[in-house]
Amino acid sequence: MEDCPFCNSHKIGRIGRERYFCAECCHEWTGTVDVTIYEILADGTMVGLMSGDGGPGHEDEDCLEQKVV
Question: Of 10, 32, 55, 60, whose CB has the highest number of CB atoms within 10 Å?
Answer without folding.
Answer: 60
